[in-house]
Amino acid sequence: MNKFLVFILALSVNFSFSQASSDVSANSLTNASRMLSNNGLWISSAPKSTKLKGTPYLFESWNNDDALIFMQDKAYRLKSLNYNIQLERFEAKFSEDSVFAFNPKNIKKVVIEGRTFKRYLDPEFQRNSFFEELAATKSISILRKHEIEIVEASFNPMTQQKVSDDQMVHKEKYYYTKDRETLKETKLKKSAVLKLIDADKKDVIKQYAKDNNLSFKDINDLKNILKHYNTL
User: Cβ neighbours of residue 211 under 8 Å, at least 6 residues apart?
Assistant: First the structure.
């Protein structure tokens, strides 16, 4: 189908603009069209012939009515946004064969299913990548990096063939930052988190986690723990 026709038809369904915040655009479809044309490119979502199992996308479903993508000028609400972990970019699906890939450089942040993503300098690869903001104290932010690892299938030396297909596996790494710029890798466990907080409050935090049966390895529990830490 002609990309322009797909775009016009899909805009009326896939874009909704909110007046709830001054940061969210309430402009016309013309301005929405301009937003897309200036901030990415159309790609095909047709399945490719491959024996690679798994998906490069973070979210199982593309249906997310509350997704917000904050560009350099305005924020836009989309109904079908997903994160391509392998290519490190956000994509919006307008039809089964039409997907729009946003230029990461033009994005300030993305909020999808209540989760916030921003770009930081990846200390391992020395390039800007999207990190998910998990929890924060008054001086420390804890982030998560989503990655794809290709796990090769076992090889049968007798038949000289693989016994199954290669697979894409979702991996996670955790970081913290004190200045919102420099990232250092960490672990999502009690000993690592306690190193990031004031020494005179560690015992209080350990007791709080114990009394409320909270785990430092669980994201929601960790948010609860650090929220209590911010009140001390």
Answer: none
> Tens digit of pLDDT for each residue in 79-94?
889 999 999 999 988 7
CA 41 to chain centre: 19
pLDDT tens-digit readout, 196-209: 999 999 999 999 99
Strands 81-84, 75-78: parallel, antiparallel or unpaired by DSSP? unpaired
Q: Which residues does 30 contact at the CB level (< 8 Å), separation at least 6?
A: none
- Residue 34: both structure tokens together: 């301009």
Torsion of the alpha carbons at 146, 176, 81 and 11, rounded to the nearest 10: -150
Whole-model pTM: value is: 0.81
Q: Which two tokens stand for residue 160?
A: 């000289």
48 CB-near residues (< 8 Å, 6+ apart): none
Neighbouring C-beta atoms of residue 53, cutoff 10 Å: 13
Neighbours of 97 (CB within 10 A): 12
Tokens of 167: 């697979």
